[in-house]
Fold this protein.
Amino acid sequence: MHYVYVLRMNNKRAYIGFTTDLRKRVQEHKTGKVFTTSKYLPVRLVYYECYLSRDDAERRERMLKRYGSTWSHLMRRITKSFRV
């Protein structure tokens, strides 16, 4: 499986990522092993999607990062989860 995930960092911003091992990658984020999020600990997994196709997952990650309307639509769906 291939995963696209959203983390909430302690500065209340989101981090969007892609991985094939979600549990391992989230643990790496939580323990500060990922440079991008290490300054914003603690982080919390708030959302993920799984795909059979690596291409589909990578395309979805790019869409969330590049297109504001795609990100806005997702945030409307997970607003309460993101704020908790």
Observations:
- DSSP finds four helices and three strands in the chain.
- The mean pLDDT is 96.
- The domain at 2-83 is CATH 3.40.1440.10 (GIY-YIG endonuclease).
